[in-house]
Amino acid sequence: MTDATPSSDGQTLTVRDDRTGKEYVLPIVDGTIRASDLGKIRVSDDEPGIASYDPGFTNTASTRSAVTYIDGEKGILEYRGYPIEQLAEKSTFLEVAYLLIHGDLPTKDQYDSWVHDITFHTFVHENIKSLMQGFRYDAHPMGMLLSAVGGLSTFYPEARNIHDADTRHLQIVRMIAKMPTLGAWSFRHAQGKPYVYPDNDLSYAENFLAMLFKMSEAKYEADPRLVKALEVLFILHADHEQNCSTNAVRSVGSSQVDPYSAVSAGIGALYGPLHGGANEAVLKMLRRIGDVSNVPAFIEGVKAGNERLMGFGHRVYKNYDPRATIIKKATDDVFEVTGVNPLLKIAVELEKIALEDEYFVKRKLYPNVDFYSGLIYEALQFPPEMFTVLFAIPRTAGWLAQWLELVNDPEQKIARPKQIYTGGRGLTFPSREERWA
Ligand code: ACO
After folding, report:
1. Got the DSSP string for 128-142?
2. pTM for this structure?
3. Top mutation candidate among 270, 308, 366 for ligand 1, by most atoms within 8 Å of CB
4. Phi and psi (nearest 5°) for 197?
5. Which distant-in-sequence residues (6+ apart) come within 8 Å of 237 by Cβ?
6. Average pLDDT of the segment spanning 153-162
């Protein structure tokens, strides 16, 4: 859990205000200074103190968190201290979700009861089904998911009691359990197919595949290699510390609203093309390149600044995105079942050339999580609109772990940034007669 009493270990930053000649000694804790300490630097008591200006929070820590660790230079991603590579190889998505939420790996009994609870909360109220059926035939599945998750708050009004640990836990179980149901139904809706109810005999990933693809067969049996690949993809997408959607969940959650409303804000953030949509752009790019022989010319175009190599580069990772390495391996398992996506050859050639080319090496541009994931999703017969839904389902575990941490963190306050006001002041309201004369 969050350590609320950090110590500076004597490290300080001395700031001299050239306006007044005064010096201020600010404690440095974990490589940061408190923005509120800057507020003490002021010219006079009746003027506001110094604030920092940071659109997009590019250099501002909003929380102390013990959930996910990233070292972008070294390409390290850990959940609760466990490297993503080990989790993807040895764990299941529900075990990882338990780890994220509770902070520790479960005992056998804890794991069994967690899986049981999640499995038996997969059904949703029939009126949620009616709500989803009310959408237009061509509704975007992310819009449907966002609305349905927000709508759940009205079915569980007790969820607003966020200060009660048992109530919080129940909503967490419900939400992780119901996301595959809602995600699958948003997919079936666009196809005009009947919604498939959950099958509580199946595992989390199997059940999701069944609700997506089951037709008239009595029991849907998914290929175990596809189930494993989906588990791995879910594990890789379960959390990624303070990204745009997690920040949205925390920011909305800081108003002490119920977790369904906070998570639906996260889904809204993930819906945006700058966050969840790059893998679709990778597919479009690969299709446009069309053939391996066109790769060198395409790379030259990228280097000339004509366009970007989609699926390459990352704000945080200046090394191979560790998730991309794992996804690349998963493509082999999926393609063994589905047949090779012909675009894979182009992707592999692009990666080979780019990793050797000085342009990409100098700028530390490596494949990110989106470079190969779209190829797998396409092989699994998902249309591009579903890609972000496939991201939102596992990320719900991370959002809720972060939300829980927020609720339990005595340092957190309602999120309310400052602004630098740039508009007019003290104007006199002219009457319409004067303005429109
Ligand atoms: N192809 C070619 N050049 C690139 C790429 C790319 N994919 N990404 C960055 N560069 C170049 C830039 O042109 C710039 O070059 P310059 O210094 O000569 O001007 C330099 O590398 C730094 O780029 P920035 O845009 O400043 O890096 P930033 O950290 O802001 O951008 C981003 C990160 C948005 C991910 C970027 O690398 C990009 O657009 N990549 C392609 C889109 C993509 O794959 N997004 C998915 C990210 S993963 C996720 O969100 C889940």
Report:
1. HHHHHHTS-TT--HH
2. 0.92
3. 308
4. -75, 155
5. 323, 369, 390, 391, 394, 395
6. 98
